[in-house]
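Below is how a single chain appears once it has passed through the pipeline. First comes the sequence as given, then the structure the pipeline wrote out for it. We keep one example in the README because the format questions we get most often are answered faster by looking than by reading.
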Amino acid sequence: MEALHQYILDKINSIPPQQRILITSHDAFHYFGNRYGLQVESLIGTSTEADVQTGDFMRVNQLIKDRNIPAIFIESTINPKLMEQISRENNISIGGKLFADSLGDENSPANTYINLLKNNANTIADALSKNPVATNLNKSGEKSKTSIWFFLIPFAIIALALFVVLKKRSN
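Resulting structure:
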């Protein structure tokens, strides 16, 4: 176990200090982050059943921009759609799949607890050691406007529904 601890420590220490920020879907890596010097940020708390709050989505997007984060991570047991959306909006890569709540199958690089920890350390170090993306430009060279629509569309739907209800009441 001491050799495993040293292996993980060496891997994480290979990441430039300003890039030691681990962004995932849910808060499953705080103990790992605390032990190995990673700032851990997530969209939702420890429950994988929780809903993403608008403020958390905005906070993570702002953190990526402010700190020039090179990659975010998906988790083996959680739907990756939100993390993929954040990746697109910020023009950053998905650094890889991390294993948190379960081991992988027998052919997986995370088929034992020791392999799970090594795989996660390798995945995190490889992705966060890369040079960060300087801007959040999309493929056409324009800033992404998706996040604005992500928030405006639900409000427009609610306003339209309220208008219809009020219109029916007045008739």
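The CA atoms of residues 13 and 108 lie 25 Å apart.

See the next section for the split statistics.
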